[in-house]
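Comment thread on ticket #2218

A.B. wrote:
> Attaching the input chain for the structure job we discussed in standup.
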Amino acid sequence: MLKQLPILLFALAISLTQPAYAQPAPEHAKAEASAVSAFLNDLSANNGIYMSARRIEFFSDLAKGQRPFATVVSCSDSRVHSNMFSRAPEGQLFMIRNIGNQLTTAEGSVEYGVHHLHSPVLMFIGHSRCGAIAAVSGNYSKESEAIKRELDTINISSNLNNMDGVQANVHNQVSAAMIKFADEIRKGELVVIGAVMDFADDIHSGAGKLHIINVNGESDRNKLGNVKALLSEKRLRAH
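C.D. wrote:
> Ran it. Output below, let me know if you need it in another format.
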């Protein structure tokens, strides 16, 4: 339907002064003129490669407007990008990124994708080793008010390991979306999907695998193996 770091160990003295999921800025992150210039040059070079690999018709089609097949809410984490699960996201995926791949903190953007762009799929993608989930599972009281507001809306048990917390959060996002867009789902205009990008192989099915864990509230792995039959069954129930 959709096209398809290592963990840093810190000394105790450092860990006591850092939020539960924060990492000290690495050397390459400093805004030195040479580093920024090299970064921009790299962007320009990669953009040139991208342009030369596509015909003018490709960009002409994009310029006509967008009709994305899926509205996708993923985490802001720099390790998770659409190239992991889509070879051609342009025009296909209406991408929304925020802390913890949430509906609540991106409600307007999600509404735009569903109501204005009429994407038939709304997808929430969590990921392994999620810092937002680690923060919510610990103590983030020393964070800024803006960050705390975004973390406050992630509602999971504090006793879960990171991957279990990631999956629980994805299920929660699907549940919230199913309430918000209940009419669209009932009419067969929208399917809400929950997924996890496991780049760390925490689920032990291969590093980098995208796992579909929820379709319109169904999380039974056996039923998820045949999405077409599952959706047909649910549509019959709705009528």
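A.B. wrote:
> Thanks. Noting for the ticket: The two ends are 24 Å apart (CA to CA).
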